[in-house]
Structure formats: C-alpha cells, structure tokens
Amino acid sequence: MIVWSGWGFLAVVIAIAGAVIGQIVLGDRYGIGIGFLLAAAVNFMVGRKLNDPSKDKIVVDEQTGERIALKRRSTLFFIPMEYWSILLVGVAIVSFLGK
C-alpha cells in the first residue's frame, strides 16, 4: 500500500520517468544512473516548490486569538517529497557501481 499526501506520488513518477528517459536517450550502461541523477534534481526542485513554507496559510481562532498555520505538504510514506532525492542519488550510485 502506497501512502502519500498532496502531490507526493510524483516522487515515484519522476524516478521512473528519469530512469526510462536516461536509458532511451543515452542507451549505454550508465543511462539509468544518469537518469536517476536527473530525476533526483527534478524531484528536489519540485518537492521544494510544493512544500514551500511561505505558502502556509495562517488562521486566527476568533475565540482564543490563537494563530494556527495550515500546511499543505507533499509526502510519500510520510517523508517530504524533496528528501526522496537522497534515495534517488543512492540508487544512481548503486547503478553505476553495479555494472
């Protein structure tokens, strides 16, 4: 069972697309690894954009005057999307060493 919130599922889509595009474009033994590296960069940028704290909404409770921040987060397995880029870099390194 895959658990995500917001646009977190895009981490998987970006990773698969990067690997496929890297293999199709380069076609050599390093194509998938380079594809994962590019996917890591794209995933990081998209994740940072989606999880930008400046987009949080501040709501004030009228009765207590307490300020509450409403945060929209894009996560996959409860991990913010941009942190999945670290795993993608690791997968790229393993794919370079495994060949």
Tell me what the structure shows.
With 99 residues, the protein is an alpha+beta fold. Helix content is 52%, strand content 14%. Helix 1 (10-26) packs antiparallel against helix 2 (31-50) and helix 2 (31-50) packs antiparallel against helix 3 (84-97). The longest helix is centred in the middle third of the chain and has 20 residues, at 31-50.
Task: Describe this protein with a few key phrases.
99 residues; alpha+beta; two-stranded antiparallel ribbon; 3 helices; elongated
List the helices and strands and how they pair.
Layout: E1 4-5, H1 10-26, H2 31-50, E2 57-60, E3 67-70, E4 75-76, E5 79-80, H3 84-97
Antiparallel strand pairs: 1-4, 2-3, 4-5
Q: Largest sheet, order of strands side by side?
A: 1-4-5
As residue ranges, the low-confidence spans are none
Categorize the overall geometry.
Answer: elongated
**SSE order, one letter for each helix or strand:** EHHEEEEH
Largest sheet: 3 strands, antiparallel
Rg (CA only): 18 Å
Structural classification: alpha+beta
Distance between the termini: 31 Å
Give the proportion of residues in helices: 40-55%
Number of domains: 1
Tell me the number of helical segments per DSSP (H or I, 4 or more residues long): 3
Estimate what percentage of residues fall within beta strands.
5-15%
What is the total tally of β strands? Answer: 5
Estimate the mean pLDDT confidence: 91
